[in-house]
Amino acid sequence: MSKTTLLRTESLRLAACFVNACIFVLLVSGQVACTSKKHTAVVSVIPPVSKAPSRGLPPDPIPKAEPRSRYGNPPSYTVLGKRYHTLSTSSGFTERGIASWYGKKFHGRRTSSGETYDMYAMTAAHTRLPLPTYVQVTNLENGKQVIVRVNDRGPFHQNRVIDLSYSAAKKLDIATKGTGLVEIRALDPLHYPLAKKSGTKATQNTNTEKTENTAIWTEEAGQRVIHGRPKVFVQVGAFSKRTSADQLLNQLRNLNLGAVSVSSIARDTGVLHRVRVGPLPTVQSADITFAKLTDMGMREHRIVIE
Predict the structure, then answer these.
(1) What are the tens digits of pLDDT across the range 160-179?
(2) pTM of the full predicted structure?
(3) How far are the Cα atoms of 52, 93, 135, 161, 242 from residue 167, in angstroms, in the given order?
(4) Of the CATH numbers 3.20.20.140, 3.30.70.1070, 3.40.50.300, 2.60.120.40, which one belongs to the domain with range 232-305?
(5) Between residues 8 and 253, which one has the greater pLDDT?
(6) Which of 94, 109, 111, 168 has the highest Cβ tally under 10 A?
C-alpha cells in the first residue's frame, strides 16, 4: 500500500479504537451511542495479553456455543457519521470483500466487547456480526482458510469488511500486503465438524488445468469453493430496468474511470442490471476509483468481489 493509504488506514483505525472505547464505557453505563455527556463506569483491570509466539502461529479456535457479550451488541451505533445495525443472528451469514488487519498499536487495548485485543490470538473485528461469532475466512487469492472469533467492532474504513488479528492475517498470507480479498462465512458451533482442518488450502482439482495467477479449488467438508481468480469491481448502481442502467453507463463512460459495463443477473424477482467499473487490478486502484466516484457525488457505489 502507498504511504498515503497506510496513513489513512491507520487514522481510521485509531479513530475506531477511540470509538470502541467510547462504545464500551457507554454501554457499561446503559448508553448505546457516544455523546459529550460524562458517565461513570466501573471497569475491571485489563488482563495481560500474550507475547509473540516462539513456535509459529497459534491454532485456530474450535467454535463453541457462547452467550452474547454483555458489551458491544447494541441494536445500532454510529461511527464517523455512519450508522451500523448489528445482526440479531449470524445464522447463514456470508460476505465477500476486502480484509485488513490491525496490530501493535492496538495490542492490549480494550475491544468493543470488553475483552483485550491480542494481536497474536485468532480474532477479528466486524461491524455487524453478533459478539462473539466464529467465522471462517477464506483468502480468495490462494484458497487458505482460518477460523477466527469476532470479538470487536470495525473496520470503519469504508471499503473493508473485516479486520483480522496479526496472526490471522499472517496465516492467510495477507499480513505483508496489508489487505486481501476474502470470503467470510459464519459458523454454527453446534454443527461445525470438529475434524475439519483449517489454515490450509482446499484440495486442488486434478481434473482441471491450473494456469498462472489462477486459483482453482474443489469442494471440501461442505464448503463452497473458488473457480478462477477473484475479480474486483466498483458497483455504481443496480437497476431492474435496462434503460436506467444504460443511462448511468453512458454517464460513467465520459468520466475516464476505465472499463465500465453492465452485468445482468437473473433473480426470483426479475433481472437485475448492475453498472460496474472494472475489473480493477488492485485493492488500491479500487479504493481510488471509489474515492473518485464519491467526489463526483455518487452515494450508492460499493466494492464487490466476484
Answers:
(1) 999 999 999 999 999 999 99
(2) 0.76
(3) 10, 23, 15, 18, 46
(4) 3.30.70.1070
(5) 253
(6) 168
Q: Are 152 and 113 in contact (CB under 8 A)?
A: yes
What one-character-per-residue DSSP string does 199-227 give?
SSPPPP-TTSPPPTT--B---BTTB---B
Q: For residue 78, what are the β-bridge partners? A: 83
> Strands 145-152 and 123-125, how do they pair?
parallel
Residue 4 has pLDDT above 70, yes or no: no
Choose the CATH number for 3-186 among 2.60.40.10, 2.40.40.10, 3.40.630.30, 3.40.50.970. Answer: 2.40.40.10
Angstrom distances, CA of residue 4 to CA of 90, 99, 129, 181, 292: 35, 18, 30, 21, 16
Q: Point out which residues pair with 99 in neighbouring strands.
A: 162, 180
> 180 is written with which cell numbers?
486481501
- Looking at residue 30, the DSSP 8-state letter turns out to be T
Q: What is the dihedral sign for C-alpha 188, 192, 198, 202?
A: negative
User: Do 111 and 126 contact (CB within 8 A), yes or no?
Assistant: no
Q: Rounded CA gap, 106 and 190, in Å?
A: 32
**What is the CB-side half-sphere exposure of residue 84 using CA atoms within 13 A?**
25
**Sequence spans of domains, the chain:** 3-186, 232-305
Q: Which of 283, 285, 16, 269 is nearest to 155 (CA)?
A: 16
Residue 210: per-residue pLDDT = 36
Taking the CA of residue 158 as centre, how many other CA atoms within 13 Å lie in the half-sphere pointing to its CB? 18
Longest dimension (CA), the chain: 64
Question: What are the strands of the beta sheet with 270-280, ordered from one edge?
Answer: 260-267, 270-280, 232-239, 302-305
